[in-house]
C-alpha cells in the first residue's frame, strides 16, 4: 500500500498522506514520496491546482520521532543523519512554494510540529472546525526551529513565539484569525470546500497564475522599491502572453475567453 495517494479530479490533483497508523508523519519515506510527486506535478501542465490532505484521524503529526531517535545511534550522536533529514524536509517544503501550481492544505484533526509547518508552507489552507495546530516540540524538549521558519512567515511574531515556547495548540477558528489558514468549515464540508477553492483557481488562466505565484514569493523578499520594479517586469511578461490578450479582448467584447 502506498503512503502517498494521488487522485486527479479534472485539473486538480489531490495528494493524500496515507500512513494513518503513524498519524501521517513526515518519515524518510513520506518525504521521499512527496518530493518525487511534487517534481512530477511541476512538469505536468494538465494540473492547475494541488490539494494536500491526510488520511485517518490527523492531517500530519510532524516528523517520525522513532526514526529520529534511531538516527542517534551513529557515532556522532546522529548529528549528520538528523541534519540530512531536516535538509531533505526543507527541500520538500521549498518545492511546494516553487511549484507553478497553487497548493492547498486540506487539514483535519491535528497538524503538529512539521505538520503545522506543512500547513504554513502551502499557499492556502482550509481546515475542519476543531482542528488543532501546534509547534509543540518544546513539550518534549525539542524546540520547533524548522517549523518556526514557515510559521513566522504566516502569523505575527509574538503569537508565533508564544506557540513555540509554550507548546500551546490553537484551534481552527484562532488559526484563521491569525492568518495560518484561509477558512474553517464544518468537518463534513471540508473535502468539498477545499475542492471548490481548488477548482476556482484551476478555472483561471494557468499561465497567469504561474506568473503570479512565482512573483508573489519573490517580491516578498525584496524592498518595496525593488518589488515594484520586479512586479512591473512580471506584469509585462504576463501582458504580452497570447492567452492574456485573448482574455482581455473577451472581457472588452463581453464574451467568454477562448482558452484551449
Strand content: 15-25%
Order of helices and strands: EEHEHHEEHEEHHEHEHHHH
For the largest beta-sheet, the strand count, sense and barrel status come to: 6 strands, mixed
Helix content, binned percent: 40-55%
Describe the overall structure.
The chain has 2 domains: about 5-200, 2-enoyl-CoA Hydratase, Chain A, domain 1 (Alpha-Beta Complex), CATH 3.90.226; about 205-250, Lyase 2-enoyl-coa Hydratase, Chain  A, domain 2, CATH 1.10.12. The two termini are about 35 Å apart. It has about 260 residues and is α/β, with parallel strands linked by helices. It has helices at about 30-40, 65-70, 80-100, 115-120, 145-150, 155-165, 170-180, 190-200, 205-220, 225-240, 240-250; strands at about 5-10, 10-15, 50-55, 105, 110, 125-130, 130-135, 170, 185. The chain is built from 11 helices and 9 strands. The model has no long low-confidence stretch (mean pLDDT about 95). The longest helix has 20 residues, at about 80-100.
